[in-house]
Every structure is written in structure tokens, then in C-alpha cells.
Recover the amino acids of this structure.
């Protein structure tokens, strides 16, 4: 009888792990492609449109390449799709911030991606805001190519 219980628990664990992996793969598929920044607000201040023109994000699988003019970095994403709102850890692998982990919330709606993080990066934001006094950065991206 104990072995039957152990088999059932193992089967459930595998099923839950597979479901979690499937959810992550679905999120990865939503991010794939090249994105351009259309709006960035930090603590109530909007980035000027001319600055946004040089900002690009390219995502392939769980890997990203962020380019802002001469500044660039690469890294990986660790998705937490079951969180509400959905959460993401951005793990910087190359560039001046190598090793840093950004705590982010996000949503993907069609060809639009919204990301929010606290500028001090001590906590993950609870809501999507870039308003003054909130200490958050709110980024809105549009996909340019799948």
C-alpha cells in the first residue's frame, strides 16, 4: 500500500512540474522577437521620444539582448507565470550589471509588452505604475518582428 501512495505522489509531482514547465514555455513564446520601447516612465518622468528611438530588446527563448545606443547587455529571463501579476527575474549575464537580478512584473497583450520594476530593486512591484513618488519604472514595448 505504501508503494502505491509513493507512486501516486510521484505521478502528481511530475504532472505539476510538467504543467509549470508548459506555462513557462507559453510565456517564453509570447516574448519571442524584437521589441522597441514606446514609453518609459520613471517616478513620474517620461523619457523623451528621441531617447526611446535607440532602445531595442531582442528575445530568443529565455535569452535577451537589450540595446540602448552604445550600451548593451545580455542575460536570461526566469518566468513566474503563476504569480499575479505575472513575475519575471531578469538575470544579467553580460554588461556592466553582470550578475544583477531585476525583480519585475509584466503583462503581454498581443504585440504590446508592459514591464514594471522598482528602481531600487529591493522588492517586486505590486502594480503597474511609474507615477511620481512610487519609485518604479514603467516600460511599454511594441513588437517589431516575431
Amino acid at each position: 500500500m505504501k508503494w502505491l501512495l509513493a507512486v501516486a505522489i510521484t505521478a502528481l509531482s511530475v504532472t505539476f512540474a510538467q504543467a509549470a514547465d508548459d506555462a513557462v514555455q507559453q510565456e517564453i513564446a509570447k516574448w519571442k522577437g524584437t521589441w522597441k520601447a514606446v514609453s518609459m516612465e520613471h517616478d513620474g518622468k517620461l523619457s523623451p521620444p528621441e531617447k526611446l528611438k535607440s532602445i531595442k530588446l531582442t528575445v530568443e527563448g529565455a535569452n535577451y539582448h537589450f540595446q540602448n545606443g552604445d550600451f548593451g547587455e545580455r542575460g536570461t529571463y526566469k518566468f513566474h507565470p503563476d504569480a499575479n501579476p505575472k513575475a519575471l527575474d531578469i538575470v544579467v549575464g553580460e554588461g556592466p550589471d553582470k550578475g544583477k537580478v531585476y525583480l519585475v512584473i509584466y503583462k503581454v497583450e498581443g504585440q504590446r509588452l508592459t514591464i514594471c520594476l522598482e528602481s531600487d530593486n529591493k522588492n517586486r512591484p505590486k502594480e503597474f505604475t511609474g507615477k511620481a513618488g512610487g519609485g518604479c519604472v514603467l516600460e511599454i514595448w511594441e513588437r517589431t518582428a516575431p
